Amino acid sequence: MRERSSRHKPCRFCEDKTPYIDYKDERTLRRYIADRGKIIPRRMSGVCERHQRQLTHAIKRSRHIALLPFLSEALK
Amino acid sequence: MRTYETTIILDAQLEEEMRDARVERYAQFLTDGGATEMTIDRRGTRRLAYLINKRDQGDYTFLRYIAPEPLPADLERETRIDEAVLRFMTILLHPRPLAETERLALMGLAPKADGVVAPSDDDRDDDEEDE
Asked: Left, alpha or beta for A37 (phi > 0: left; psi -120 to 50: alpha)?
């Protein structure tokens, strides 16, 4: 059986010691949404559980104030 | 008293003076209601990610303030009936009264110093007060 790699890339927000994921920071948040506009799961983005929760919250707020799309323009 | 942040998106088709007057009016409303330490962050006109009321441009303003608890609800009642406001959202920046340094850092008024800024994540359970 192949052994699972133990190399684990630490969460970017943990590395930066981000105190608060800002819903107004559209540029950062855009990195965590797919082309469709969906939130990228943490198994793909490598964000830790705590920060993924904060990130999700921020993205949803950002969508509400139309900084981010619910659905990307191309798919409408 | 709690720290709130209200986002107001105004219709960008209105004249600039009218938009400024609106922001001024809402700031005054908050001050009259007992809000303190207000910062008004005008970000200006930008494209909306999707159409709201058939508009594709909005004028963004962020108001950060410390206010007694019923005040944001009163403000939202005002903004809801205002046709110039495309969208509004009020969030609780922090649920417990903050230490002075924490609060300033959170409001972007002071440079971040080590060990001062971050309120612990367990406390940061903001709730949203919105439609």
From this structure: left
- Total tally of structural domains belonging to chain A: 1
Residue to mutate among B121, B122, B125, B127, with most A CBs inside 10 A, is B121
Q: How is residue A37 annotated by DSSP?
A: S
Q: Write the pLDDT tens digit of every residue in A41-69.
A: 999 999 999 999 999 999 999 999 999 99
Q: Cβ separation of B62 and A24 shorter than 8 Å?
A: yes
For residue A35, give its domain range.
12-75
β-sheet bridge partners, residue B92? B4
Residue that is written with structure tokens 């924490």 in the block: B102
* Sheet of strand B85-94: strand arrangement: B36-52, B55-67, B2-11, B85-94, B128-129
- ipTM of model: 0.81
Please name the residues in contact with B64: beta carbons below 8 A apart, sequence gap of 6 or more.
B3, B4, B5, B38, B39, B41, B93, B107
Q: Please name the residue of chain A whose CA is at the shortest distance from the CA of residue B48.
A: A66
Task: Copy the structure tokens of residue B119.
Answer: 């309120």
Q: Which fold has domain B2-129?
A: Alpha-Beta Plaits (3.30.70)
CB contacts of B87 in chain A (<8 Å) are: 64-66
| List of chain A residues whose C-beta atoms are within 8 Å of the C-beta of residue B60 | 65
Do the strands B128-129 and B36-52 form a parallel or antiparallel pair, or are they unpaired?
Answer: unpaired
What does the pLDDT read at residue B97? 54
